[in-house]
């Protein structure tokens, strides 16, 4: 077990999410930065979709009640085991009674803690990802105990550490494709959309990132249509909303762009005030 001594700002359990339930209105959910999740699991020799802790902005304080092997990826929240700083993208053996703590992030916005064998909470609709209305809780709570497997095999292997380029935390570029309603924009609007530097507003979370600047919009709302993580919607007030992992499955705002999976990972590591620039792939 892992006992949660402090829960952090917004800590959840995530895997690669739920698929096959969107027709019932169930969001995909899953790790915001799936690259970071997959790397953590790969270093541990886990299956890539095993559940991890996703930590946002400020991490938790955790006590291990059995030995296991851990790996931390994503944002640098200055992790410490028993008050001793430890590195990211490395394997660390922890023992019964060890305390893992995190602080505010120095770079990036979301960090991931994986354990050998994954976090073994109950599956709901084939996923352990937390989501309000689907699972009992939306976040990890103080004093909660998270089931994990005992492991005391050490870190003596050739793949115990990995040097990762985290420049994507600061990259402005978000690669996109045209959305279904992109061609309804005027040419001037299309050019501005692709060449203008936007900034993340304070209205950002696992459901969606709203951009700060307004964009001229004369488009009519559309008949409710499918949306998915990475869909960029244009509201009647001219705000751009980028849907993220916990987004709804349908929407009535014009879908002007679509981020690819890598760009969703990139955006998930951005916080309020940081900039982004769309790079269009499939211009017609």
Percentage of residues in DSSP E strands: 25-35%
SSE sequence, one letter per element: EEHEEEEEEEEEEHEEEEEEEHE
Question: Strand order, biggest sheet?
Answer: 12-19-16-17-14-13-20
Question: How many domains in all?
Answer: 2
Query: What does the average pLDDT come to?
Result: 93
Helical content class = under 10%
Beginning-to-end CA distance, first to last residue: 54 Å
GO molecular function, one term: ATP binding
Pfam families: CT_A_B (PF02626)
Keywords: ATP-binding, Hydrolase, Nucleotide-binding, Transferase
InterPro entries: CT_A_B (IPR003778), Cyclophilin-like_dom_sf (IPR029000), PxpC (IPR052708)
Account of the 3D structure:
- This is Biotin-dependent carboxyltransferase family protein.
- GO terms for molecular function: ATP binding; hydrolase activity; transferase activity.
- Keywords: ATP-binding, Hydrolase, Nucleotide-binding, Transferase.
- This protein is mainly β and 284 residues long.
- The protein has 2 domains: 166 residues, no CATH class; 110 residues, Cyclophilin-like (Cyclophilin, Beta Barrel), CATH 2.40.100.10.
- The protein has 3 helices and 20 strands.
- The strands form 4 sheets. The protein has a 7-stranded mixed beta barrel with strand order 12-19-16-17-14-13-20. Strands 7-6-9-4-1-11 form a 6-stranded antiparallel sheet, with no helix packed on it.
- A hairpin with a 3-residue loop joins strand 13 and strand 14.
- The longest helix has 11 residues.
- It is elongated and about 60 Å long.
């Amino acid at each position: 077990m892992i006992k949660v001594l402090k829960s952090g700002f917004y800590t959840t359990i995530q895997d690669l999410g739920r698929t096959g339930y969107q027709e019932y209105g169930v969001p995909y959910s899953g790790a915001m930065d799936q690259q970071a999740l997959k790397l953590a699991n790969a270093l541990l020799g886990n299956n890539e979709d095993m559940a991890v802790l996703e930590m946002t902005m400020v991490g938790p304080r955790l006590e291990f009640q059995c030995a296991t092997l851990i790996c931390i990826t994503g944002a640098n929240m200055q992790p410490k085991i028993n008050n001793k700083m430890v590195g990211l993208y490395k394997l660390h053996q922890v023992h019964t009674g060890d305390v893992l703590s995190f602080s505010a992030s120095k770079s990036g916005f979301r960090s991931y803690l994986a354990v050998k064998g994954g976090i073994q909470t109950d599956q709901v609709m084939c996923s352990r990802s937390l989501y309000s209305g689907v699972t009992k809780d939306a976040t990890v709570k103080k004093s909660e105990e998270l089931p994990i497997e005992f492991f005391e095999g050490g870190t003596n292997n050739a793949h115990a550490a990995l040097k990762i380029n985290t420049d994507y935390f600061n990259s402005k570029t978000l690669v996109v494709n045209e959305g279904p309603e992109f061609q309804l924009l005027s040419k001037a609007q299309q050019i501005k959309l692709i060449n203008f530097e936007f900034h993340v507003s304070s209205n950002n979370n696992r459901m969606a990132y709203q951009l700060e600047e307004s964009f001229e919009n004369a488009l009519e709302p559309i008949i409710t249509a499918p949306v998915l993580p990475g869909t960029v919607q244009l509201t009647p007030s001219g705000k751009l909303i980028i849907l993220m992992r916990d987004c709804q499955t349908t929407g009535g705002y014009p879908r002007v762009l679509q981020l690819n999976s890598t760009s969703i990972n990139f955006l998930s590591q951005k916080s309020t005030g940081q900039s982004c620039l769309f790079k269009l792939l499939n211009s017609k």
